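Session log. Operator J.P. requested a structure for one protein chain; no other inputs attached. Running the standard single-chain path with token output.
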Amino acid sequence: MPENVTILGAGLAGSEAALQLADRGFRVRLVEMRPGTPTPVHATDACAELVCSNSLKSTKPESAAGMLKVELEALGSRLMAAARRHAVPAGGALAVDRAAFARDVTERIESHPLIDLVREEATSLADAARGADALVVATGPLTSDALAADLAAVAGGARLAFYDAAAPIVMADSLDEGLLFRQSRYEDGSEGQGDYLNAPFSREEYDAFIGELVAAERAVLRDFESRDLFQACQPIEEIARKGHDAPRFGPLKPVGLVDPRTGKRPWAALQLRAEDAHGSCYNLVGFQTNLTFPEQRRVFRMIPGLERAEFARFGVMHRNTFLDAPRLLDERLRLVAPGAAALGAPVFAAGQLTGTEGYCEAVRSGLHAAVCVAVELTGAELPPLPRETAFGALLAYASNPETRDYQPMHVNFGIMEPLATRVRNKRDRYAAYAARGAEAIEGYRASLAERGLMPAGAPPSQARRDDGPVEGASHG
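Structure written below.
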């Protein structure tokens, strides 16, 4: 009789965990509250729906995001395989057709003989743990109020919240192709071959736009202090408030672009990335926003080429709920809160609920939680996750009791173990991090395989590694 595992939340982390555990022979009850209980940002009831962006960031191995993809593929991530199947052009980034990606994951979950997908809202950890040999909580940043309150009670009140912002999406056929030009940054080759559309600003156009952006009405009528907004997802209007030229050195940086109309670099430029394989709509890269919908329509139509833009989705801002991981989770992502012992089954957390920010980070934490649950229920020995890997460094940060004022974090070189020998050149230093991480993840994978902790169908050798220029990516 296989052990029973209940997973709350069918987002990226919960879906990955469910498929990983089921492929290891565990019976999984995957509980998803949608569509009966909707959220402010989800549009469907599909598993693994991407709500902020369709980009999973860089594929370049010599980047932290690229390192994480190498690790996911080395460990046989089911969702990374789905992302590869439904990739859309995005320069050096991995972007997906979000509808096809979510549909693929949902179909695989619904057809798996060991997964029972249950559509209901979980409001109590104790109730969810009843009859389960282990419980994984992967309800994400939009955990329902009832479950969040129960989780706070179990955690002793140590719950934090911050605000996250999502960028607007515009319809392709409403854009002015006479003003926009297709080009990736530092692109070699002929005009019109790039994966991004670019809206070039003159200095006068930029000045007028920033003035209206800063003055526009926001949906949340108070100023957010910097600690309340995760820096990687700050609304564009908040970036502009830091300085008139701040967007020009951030999401609107024109570096590496040449406007074919002038033969020169524009004063500023907005990049637009295709949302699906057909290029029917485009995401305003880096334009997460808290403006009201009418103001988004008015102000963003000041962008050259977007004067008649039709919005497939306006930008939204929503609450993110996450645990104070350094005090509440161990390196196995197991809940060690005061009230956890009374729940009757070991409780693990995964995804953005742990404060590991980003799409691929959520997938990786779901995979890690699945491995740790398998270890818990089989009595196998869990090899230590090397801190030289991207996720190993992130997990060490998230579970370090010395980490104070814990805020959401994504993989980056700043939290990785220093190299044994100092490398001054940044490109060479990042390449050294990546080479060290690739070796470490192969050793970790081999240790998992020796203990029978790798699922069927995992790659037999080093995972795929893609090279390419790093392009801007907004989330994930």
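Operator note: Confidence is low (pLDDT under 50) at residues 221-227, 462-476.
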